[in-house]
Write a structure and sequence with these properties.
The protein is built from 5 helices and 4 strands; from the N terminus they run H-E-H-E-H-E-H-E-H. The chain is of the alpha/beta class and 125 residues long. Helix 1 runs parallel beside helix 2, helix 2 crosses helix 3 and helix 4 packs across helix 5.
Length: 125
């Protein structure tokens, strides 16, 4: 639920993550360390969930220029998971590490995690 946690998750899966899903409630966190970690790890696609994901997308595009990952602003978690399903090559990892709280769209992080699991399994959020 914070950028530092997402950075730690990327470090734990270093080199295997092709797609990152991030974003959620916007608390004004500094996404600079996460942007640097995304670029350093060579993530191919970042699906950004509003509202904080929109700021992450902006920061990532500004820092990476035309040489960065594909950055997609998803409308919600369901759209982000659908995008990740298409974008993530077989044998690579899609990491859901939001770097933001779940408030607004979900009651708490547990409910958001359960929604993610249902979406990955092909169900409704």
């Amino acid at each position: 639920t914070a950028p530092e946690a997402a950075v730690a998750a990327l470090e734990a899966f270093r080199g295997s993550v092709a797609t990152l899903i991030a974003g959620g409630h916007d608390r004004g966190y500094d996404f600079a360390p996460l942007v640097e970690a995304i670029l350093a790890d060579g993530i191919a696609t970042v699906a950004c969930v509003p509202p904080s994901g929109l700021r992450l997308a902006r920061d990532l595009r500004a820092r990476a220029g035309s040489g960065g990952p594909r950055v997609v602003e998803a409308g919600d978690l369901a759209e982000a998971v659908a995008l990740a399903r298409e974008a993530t090559p077989s044998g690579r990892t899609c990491l859901f590490s939001p770097a933001s709280p779940s408030y607004g769209a979900f009651r708490d992080f547990k409910e958001r995690g359960e929604a993610f699991r249902r979406l990955v399994a092909g169900g409704a959020p």
